[in-house]
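Re: the multi-chain job from yesterday

Posting the exact lines I submitted so nobody has to dig through the queue logs.
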Amino acid sequence: MNTPVTQQTGNKVVLVVDDDDTTRLLTSTIMTDAGYTVLTACDGAEALEKVAEHNVDCVVTDVMMPNVNGFDLCSMIRILPDGDRIQILFMTGLDDLESIQRAYSAGANDFATKGFHPALLLERVRFLLRNQQLQDALRQSEQRLKYAQRLASLGHWERTLDGRTRAISPTVCKFLDSTDPSQVSWDYLCAHTHPDDVSFLQLNMKRAITRHSNFQLEHRYLGTNGELRILRHQGEFNRDANGEWLIYSTVQDVTENRAQEERIRFMAFHDPLTELPNRASVVRDLSRIIAGQGTERRMIAVFALSLDDFSRITSSLGQDASNAVLKAVGDCLRRQMRDSAHMSINESGDVVDELMIAHAEADKFICVVNNLQLAEAATSIAKRLQRTIATPIKAGDSELQLTASIGISIYPDDAVAANQLIDNAFTALMHTKDQKAACQLFSADLTQSARQRLSLEAQLRQAVEKEEFELYFQPRLNLADNSIRGAEAVARWRHPTLGIVGPGEFIPLLEEMGQIAEMGNLVIGMAARQAARWQRNLDQNFRISFNISPLQFSAVDLVAEIDQAVARAGTRHANLEVEVTESALMSNPEQVISTLKSLRERGMQIAMDDFGTGFSSLGMLRDLPVDILKIDRSFVMDIGVTPSGSAMVNAILLMARALSLDCVAEGVELDSQLNFLAHNNCHEAQGYLLAKPMCAADFEQWINKWQKQKASVA
Amino acid sequence: MQPQLDPEKINMLRGLRNGAFLPQLLRTYREQSLSQLTGIRNAISSKDAATLRSITHSLKSASMSIGASKIGSLCADLETLGRAGNTAGSEPICAELEQLHAALMTETEQYL
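And the result, structure tokens for all chains:
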């Protein structure tokens, strides 16, 4: 039988799934001869991989197969993004009514009986694909309408990934100063984009194309008469009816909005009279400097400066003249700042850089000097500022000789927050009242909050030194035989006065303090020692899992650290397991993956923590060095609550099975959840239903009781 | 003994790729069915119902595909037994299956 190859069949991809060689050969030959592009798979797991890798239009599948069967395959495809457009046809025995019903409820589109006539099978497939085309067309027209409606004032632009225009609205042509839509392309846009923005624009577009991710881009565009506009593109990726990826974007001219925003921003952060930055601006910039310092705390001096007797000047010269004086003082300070910026060593030999100057209010100014080597240098800088002010200033026809008093506060001694530093400088300034050209260092006590935080940090630093941490263990139940073969270790801080403190309260602080690696090493050491003990006392294959912070991967040689701990404790790598979050894997993939690979080669198991809360895709999971998925508690909570909740967990379990990964469900609190998980072949479970995290001694007692109970039941 | 292959089916299969496909398909079938028969025999002697079920299921599909419906239905009978967790009573069916299969091997030689 020869079926002519038509245009319709030519670019459609059909996946034939069957574990039986003869049937698979026959079906795929029929499909190939009809002109389809044919892929084959021997079971559901292989089929899933093909679906993840290729743009499959139609799946023709057997029902009974090893590993993942046809029903499960179907359910899993339906959960994939875009999985609902794939047409699925089941091949069943004539007599198998039950299978046909199950196939439909798993989301099958049609079925054909085995021992079929090829012409019949082809007709089924053709019908399904025609149906799909209609659905695609409908979806696309809905999409176009959505774009059109979203904002009538927006231009609409549809182009191919290599930048050729498929459809463009007149509005976009107008923004681009083009009278001929056919000349507009991505290259045309880039050619007229402001030279400084071209690489930004191309880089970001390239990145979006690689990931098929939604994008928002803004860039400057040069109109034909040299006019500069700011264009904003917002877009997403979708396939057209032929399966080709297209970029659908809206284009907007935001020049006016940006100019207005710029004015508003300027006004929010500048004094309207002197046009110097205002206090809010100093707070913002100073906060940034402080945040950027990390653990190395270089001194910063904040000067609050006020003109002596300025109210007298205002009342004698009038408002306008006094405004002019303030403007002149501002210019003078600004000049001083500019000059100093070039001079990195002041006259006392202190290295300084980054000066900031601001107009706080009326006759008050703020100066900031970063990178002070000695606190004493602040006084000499203050003197210099005072000399600058003392330069005679022209006010109308006469010249004025002004003096200024200055209050000083120093980071980090006097405060650690920008606002507090400025307040303290003004407090010091207040103490100079009635004096002229005075200078006062802030000397009051630290603020309460700063002290508390510093003391907690100090205690925590000490806790790391004194190893005031302890591991708590939460058992993991093996659902196949109700045995306990492992536990997750969680760090607790035994605080001298606060008692036991959970990791949520100190891990973020440690990360901020840059001490997470030291803490992490302690955990590794403790976990290894405990593993050695339980390897002897409980079960020689007992496994302890512990969490690794993303920062640990870059801070220390994790592999060497673990090797050492294992050797010192006298245990084996196989008795340890690391838990890494999805986001850690994504943040620095190369380094993290190579570290995990080395650990795995040594026999350690790698678990992906909080699975389902990040963005791991099916395709990606296969390439990651991961053995275990820990299903996040948020999914477990939904079991039996919503139909999609149970389906989601089941889908994760099936997917894990297809990729030969074990699953551990976290946060199991109810019997019904446990039953569901056991019934659906989840490997292990942990949660309050079983036990809370316990100290090692309690854990040993608990597990003894558990084993006795188990023995008595058996 | 009656021919095992459905002549209509064979005609249809001959139509694929101007007759070039049928020998390829039959070679695949002959190869797989020989090892599957051994598998069925082993499963019965070791009373492994699950294996009996999965092998006969696969051989059933393959036999239907080439139009050997009698062999296909014998496989279906064995599959039903296997599904029930049973290998008792499979012996005579298996013997008949082997007999028909031998005949099929001879019959298919002419098409290779």
